[in-house]
């Protein structure tokens, strides 16, 4: 059923030539939306009931441009809202190509409630418009960005509060053991490693609370044992495993990488890894691969046992994307996944080392 305004306007609507509409760039629209301070909760139905109460307020309308009126120096457009209500608004000059097109685009329109006007029960001044799809996508991206930032902040706080901070292999055995040391740790770990075992076990257990005590024990002992054997800072191994699997022993990636250190099938075969989901076997292979990568990128003149940040960055890039990719690009490859991976490992490692 046609609304009165639609019936009155049908004979006046002039359709523009069928050409692609050029909308206000979405960034410009979002900037305008921030600057005018629109009310997200304000709807046209609310304004319509008492327009004078909302004079000067800005709301965002969503609808389909269902027609337009071309004037000598201006244009007006008919916006059909989701509930079927039609609004006749003057088109902002910069958005006329979008709002006078015949493609019936779905749009967002910023509108200010004015003191008086013609044609609407609630007189509105259109300030700007943009494609609905583009604005909605930016809003989804913003929500995802906030969620990721919040997750990174939670992880950073957890790491900064962890007892691993400033507790590497150089911790002195005379510090004493805080908490129990398992039979497995007493059997296989050196006194220095036993001294820091409770801190690492507690951190791993808190990071993945679904692990059983037996799994926490196996992961901690193997991590400290193979880190000492291959002369790798155990905090760097922790950072690697967090980036790879978040300490989930049965994790499998879409590319087939397996276990704590996300070992690829060909790497498993080359290193004699029979069960990639066994924590001890997986950590052994992961630390061995990490040591190999660190050795490849060791900088000349670096003291024995010392690492440089560039060496760590290249080793992590090679662990993620392969040494061939690092060689091809002469550094960290320009892959979004690899660059994000390297940054995450470095950030976690710095936090574990107390900054």
Largest sheet: 5 strands, antiparallel
| Strand line-up across the major sheet | 3-2-1-4-5
Shape: elongated
Radius of gyration from the alpha-carbon trace, in angstroms: 31 Å
Class from secondary-structure proportions: alpha+beta
Say how many strands there are: 5
- Helix content class: 40-55%
Q: What average pLDDT do the residues reach?
A: 83
What does this 3D model show about the protein?
Helix content is 48%, strand content 12%. 35% of the residues are buried. Strands 3-2-1-4-5 form a five-stranded antiparallel beta sheet. The protein has helices at 4-9, 26-36, 44-49, 96-99, 132-161, 183-188, 191-207, 213-229, 234-245, 265-270, 279-296, 309-321, 323-329, 336-352, and strands spanning 58-70, 75-81, 86-90, 106-113, 124-131. Strand 1 (58-70) and strand 2 form a beta hairpin. It contains 14 helices and five strands. The chain is of the alpha+beta class and 355 residues long. Helix 7 (191-207) crosses helix 8 (213-229), helix 9 (234-245) packs across helix 14 (336-352) and helix 12 (309-321) crosses helix 13 (323-329).
């Amino acid at each position: 059923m046609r609304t009165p305004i639609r019936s009155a306007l049908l004979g006046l609507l002039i359709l523009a030539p069928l050409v692609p509409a050029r909308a206000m760039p979405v960034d410009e629209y979002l900037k305008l939306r921030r600057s005018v301070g629109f009310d997200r909760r304000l709807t046209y139905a609310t304004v319509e009931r008492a327009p004078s109460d909302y004079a000067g307020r800005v709301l965002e309308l969503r609808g389909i441009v269902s027609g337009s009126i071309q004037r000598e120096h201006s244009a007006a457009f008919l916006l059909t809202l989701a509930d079927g209500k039609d609004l006749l608004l003057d088109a902002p000059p910069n958005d006329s190509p979008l709002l006078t097109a015949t493609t019936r685009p779905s749009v967002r329109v910023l509108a200010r409630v004015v003191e008086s006007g013609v044609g609407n029960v609630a007189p509105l001044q259109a300030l700007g418009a943009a494609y609905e799809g583009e604005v909605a996508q930016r809003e989804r991206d913003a929500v995802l960005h906030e969620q990721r930032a919040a997750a990174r902040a939670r992880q950073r706080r957890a790491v900064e509060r962890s007892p691993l901070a400033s507790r590497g292999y150089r911790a002195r055995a005379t510090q004493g053991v805080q908490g129990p040391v398992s039979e497995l740790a007493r059997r296989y770990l050196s006194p220095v490693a036993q001294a820091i075992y409770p801190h690492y076990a507690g951190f791993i257990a808190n990071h993945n609370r679904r692990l059983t005590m037996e799994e926490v024990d196996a992961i901690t002992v193997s991590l400290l044992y193979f880190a000492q054997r291959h002369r790798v800072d155990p905090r760097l191994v922790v950072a690697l495993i967090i980036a790879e699997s978040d300490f989930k022993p049965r994790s499998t990636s879409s590319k087939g990488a397996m276990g704590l250190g996300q070992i690829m099938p060909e790497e498993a075969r080359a290193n004699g890894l029979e069960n990639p989901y066994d924590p001890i076997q997986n950590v052994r292979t992961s630390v061995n691969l990490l040591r190999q990568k660190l050795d490849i990128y060791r900088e000349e003149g670096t003291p024995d046992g010392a690492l440089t940040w560039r060496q760590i960055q290249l080793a992590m890039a090679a662990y993620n994307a392969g040494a061939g990719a690092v060689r091809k690009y002469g550094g960290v490859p320009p892959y979004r996944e690899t660059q994000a991976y390297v940054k995450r490992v470095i950030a976690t490692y710095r936090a574990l080392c107390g900054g």
